From TrEMBL:
<dbReference type="Pfam" id="PF04542">
    <property type="entry name" value="Sigma70_r2"/>
</dbReference>
<dbReference type="InterPro" id="IPR014284">
    <property type="entry name" value="RNA_pol_sigma-70_dom"/>
</dbReference>
<keyword id="KW-0731">Sigma factor</keyword>
<dbReference type="InterPro" id="IPR039425">
    <property type="entry name" value="RNA_pol_sigma-70-like"/>
</dbReference>
<feature type="domain" description="RNA polymerase sigma-70 region 2">
    <location>
        <begin position="13"/>
        <end position="78"/>
    </location>
</feature>
<dbReference type="InterPro" id="IPR007627">
    <property type="entry name" value="RNA_pol_sigma70_r2"/>
</dbReference>
<keyword id="KW-0804">Transcription</keyword>
<dbReference type="InterPro" id="IPR013325">
    <property type="entry name" value="RNA_pol_sigma_r2"/>
</dbReference>
<dbReference type="InterPro" id="IPR013324">
    <property type="entry name" value="RNA_pol_sigma_r3/r4-like"/>
</dbReference>
<keyword id="KW-0238">DNA-binding</keyword>
<keyword id="KW-0805">Transcription regulation</keyword>
<comment type="similarity">
    <text>Belongs to the sigma-70 factor family. ECF subfamily.</text>
</comment>
<protein>
    <submittedName>
        <fullName>Sigma-70 family RNA polymerase sigma factor</fullName>
    </submittedName>
</protein>
Length: 188
């Protein structure tokens, strides 16, 4: 006489606490029920593969659930390490890539650049004070944050010429006339 194998639903109801036990034993925080679902899947696999002559079903469930959860923890840790390494590589590449030739320096103070960005009339006033090339430098280097080499390539000129435009703009920005204009705009 063969004994009928219980359904998975019955087995699941009887052994659901094993999943919670393993989560607790491994000190896992499971707010999204990922580990619980992994435990259910492990229990289902164990139910499907269980061979009664090899040992008790409860021991096999515990083994499968625990190892599946440990595998998931290792996978998540590996992903976090890879992400952290990627972030460090990106930081390192950005810090080593920074040079006066490739990255435009911050010519304007933070409050001045914020004022310019939020005040189109001030941009127009500044544009009226500059030559065409000087305005190109302001537009590309300050507004678009484009490197000097790229500006030179786009304008079909040398990097030295672009740097010269920038020097002329900074010289004009330091004049008392422009500072008075700026103060008037800031008071409005």
């Amino acid at each position: 006489m063969t004994q009928q194998k219980p359904s998975f639903e019955e087995i699941c109801q009887q052994n659901e606490r094993r999943i919670h036990y393993q989560i607790h034993k491994l000190n896992i925080r499971d707010p999204h029920q990922e580990y619980y679902q992994e435990g259910l899947f492990a229990m289902w696999n164990a139910y499907e593969r269980y061979e009664p002559d090899k040992g008790p079903m409860a021991t096999y469930f515990n083994y499968m659930i625990r190892n599946r959860m440990i595998d998931l923890m290792r996978k998540e840790n590996r992903q976090q390490e890879q992400l952290a390494n990627y972030i460090e590589e990106q930081k390192a590449s950005h810090s080593t890539a920074a040079s006066p030739e490739t990255d435009p320096p911050q010519y304007l103070s933070r409050e001045f650049s914020d004022l310019l960005l939020s005040n189109p009339a001030l941009w127009q006033q500044l544009k009226s004070q500059l030559t065409e090339n000087q305005w190109k430098w302001v537009y590309y280097a300050v507004i678009d944050n484009m490197p000097i080499k790229e500006i030179a390539i786009q304008e079909n000129t040398t990097s030295e010429a672009v740097k010269s435009w920038g020097k002329q703009v900074r010289k004009k920005l330091r004049t008392d006339e422009f500072r008075q204009l700026l103060k008037q705009e800031m008071n409005l």
